[in-house]
Amino acid sequence: EVQLVESGGGMVQPGGSLRLSCAASGFTFSYHYIDWVRQAPGKGLEWVGRSRNKANGYTTEYAASVKGRFTISRDDSTSTVSLLMNSLKTEDTAVYYCVRVLRGGDCFDYWGQGTLVTVTS
Amino acid sequence: DIQMTQSPSTLSASAGDRVTIACRASESINRWMAWYQQKPGKAPKLLIWDASNLESGVPSRFSGSGSGTEFTLTISSLQPDDFATYYCQQYVSFPRTFGQGTKVEVK
To answer: Looking at chain A, which residue has its C-alpha nearest residue B88?
Structure first.
């Protein structure tokens, strides 16, 4: 069974940092890209960024709203992806989902349960 | 960035109704379109990919169509479990973008 489990969410002050983790299981992690998608309270979905696999150089992509502040990394040996969030702003408050990218397509076929990040003073 | 615009934002319907949700892209995305269903407090669930491919395990009452800039998600006979919010998403270019969502509510 494919599972994605996020952790690391919590409350942080503006300007602070937080690292989210996503633990994957039930599939060959090294084959897949993993993305992060967030959802502010009561709002729609916003794509945050992508981690590509080794075959594609472990390269990353970011939304303009987080570029330069957020960093995605992955560890194939432990099947985990991390989202390091620096210089957090109140508008970064959201539920953060770790998602698996469908091979043969490029949409999101499995989602974690999400972890809430609240940026507040 | 490619803008995705869904209509309507809210749809009131009854069980058994045929429901259609539209999504328009601000430029051509070929068939690189997905649809997701989200229920309150839950993660979204993939329904349709590449505009018309039904994801495994998704009931056949769901269907998708379209190409270029105009797409639709159709539920042929609305079931009680289908009351939820639906999102379209393009994946032809970065940043990946979603529509604002369509809430299907009980009439």
So the answer is: A45
Residues of B with Cβ-Cβ distance to A111 under 8 angstroms: 43-45
- Quick: pLDDT tens for A23-67: 999 999 999 999 999 999 999 999 999 999 999 999 999 999 999
Of B20 and A104, which is predicted with more confidence?
B20
Strands (DSSP E) contained in B1-107 are 4-7, 10-13, 19-25, 33-38, 45-49, 53-54, 62-67, 70-75, 85-90, 97-98, 102-106
- pLDDT tens, residue by residue, B72-100: 999 999 999 999 999 999 999 999 999 99
Query: A111–B98: do the CB atoms touch at under 8 Å?
Result: no
What is the DSSP code string of A5-44? EEE--EEE-TT--EEEEEEEESS-GGGS-EEEEEE-TTS-
Helix (H, G, I), strand (E, B) or coil at B70: strand
Q: Which residue of B has its CA nearest to A41?
A: B41
> Best mutation site among A106, A109, A116 for testing chain B: the one with the most B CBs within 10 Å?
A106
Can you give the C-alpha Rg of chain B in angstroms?
A: 13
